[in-house]
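Reply to dn_fold:

You asked what the input looked like. This is it:
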Amino acid sequence: MDHADEQTEHGGTGALGEAEYAEFMELAAEEGFDLEEVADDLAEAGHGPLPVLAVVGRPNVGKSTLVNRIIGRREAVVEDKPGVTRDRVTYEAHWNGRRFKIVDTGGWEQDVLGIDASVAAQAEFAIEASDAVVFVVDSTVGATDTDAAVVRLLRRAGKPVVLAANKVDGPTGEADAAALWNLGLGEPYPVSSLHGRGTGDLLDAIIEVLPEAPALTFGDVVGGPRRIALIGRPNVGKSSLLNKVANEDRVVVNEVAGTTRDPVDELIKLGGITWKFIDTAGIRRRVHLTEGADYYASLRTAAALEKAEVAVILVDASETLAEQDTRIITMAVEAGRAVVIAYNKWDLLDEERRYYLEREIEKDLVQVQWAPRVNVSARTGRHMERLVPAIETAIAGWETRVPTGRLNAFLGELVAAHPHPIRGGKQPRILFGTQAGTKPPRFVLFASGFLEAGYRRFIERRLREEFGFAGTPIQVSVRVREKRGRKK
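and this is what came back:
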């Protein structure tokens, strides 16, 4: 397999074309870099979303310990009592050259609404958002009614499942593990997440069921309506906005916060274009402290964001910007979605409030100055016509691609005019780079040394000044590679 084929195989949405890839590899060869390592770096940065593995099971069966074993470090909090893990936490892992994301989930809280609602709230979303599932069972206890409930969820979801019989610390425990064949999920893999026994065989089985190439959940359907998620705090007017753009009462609106529970998908014609708008439940301050239906609604909202291309984040302009507003914006940025910020209830603002709102935006939303802003009123319909151009601007930035030649000319001028500060007697510099993908734009820079965080932010700011990228986050990764020694 040549490098071009290798790149095409691993590249995700917006990956380099063969001619441009060949040009880039020629540049890397001239600089004396190891081409195999460069190809690996490009494949890593240019792929779409990594395959997702969810680790589910009832409390205290050793899920977090197993996650720590798989990722090779103590990241997930472990304690010898149930219910320590509450939020879903995602880590990156690799095995035999394959990379994937692993999601550690919490068990159910017994004091919420009982086993059915709480297992559904934790496990069902993790299963729905994953490509495969590891179901962890305590082999020393055997299959319980709770385990049987999770099995029913797994069967409904239809996702590939690997059954981990945990706490098998020696040969004597393997008989207990064999008894778990009765769950009907296939072979139980006896493991000890605490001591590492059997985890290699388990990981081999996981790699077998995970997809080889990342399954893109957005941007790969030609001609389909673009997907817009309306997200924000409870009662900021998401449902009212959806009703206004649809010119009819599509969803229930009430002054009581939290009326919407399930995401509502609506095909709406706006500005002569058909869009798929997704109205979501408000995201509360701390998801793991909400109960029952609210808890489940928050997880559903996160799933809706994963399936969207653009996040329209509604902010109540009549109130002081809350920490929760910035957290929701960060959530959309980290998900890699195009972002539009809509300040709702603009008709309620007086001059004094508008002045202070501008100060709050400058102070609290400095990290998303690139996001288009629209001032609207979902109640009166004011400025609704501005929403479509803002969404189109964000999508255009999200899909923007910079040719490698143009990017390297820009980087050369940037380094010459603004070199990296000297640290420890050395001055690292950017040698060359490329845009490895879009949706969102992903750049790989090859440097002669470590680039400080402040200099990376400077690079991102100048990329935006030069090429636009309005409405989209940018991912910049730096690879420090030693040149191969020249033969004399």
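The chain has a mean pLDDT of 77.
Hope that clears it up.
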